[in-house]
Amino acid sequence: LTVHTMYILECAPKRLRGMVGVSVASFVSMGKFVGQLLGISEVLGTEERWIWLLAFSGAAGLLQLLTLPFLPESPR
Q1: How far is residue 50 CA from its own chain's centroid?
Q2: Which of 5, 12, 48, 55 has fewest C-beta within 10 Å?
């Protein structure tokens, strides 16, 4: 996570570096919150539904992997 943040800050234009740095921390916090929310026993935290909770993370990773070829190359 630290290396990713440094990389994205180096790629961002100078006028946007502060906003990009804060957005990384914000999205990490939101991801933790959503994970905790989905893990509540009334939502997906039961023994019968844990596989859907695991698949949710896998689907998000697969979506990121599929959109990777459409992202621009690093400027440096």
Answers
A1: 20
A2: 48
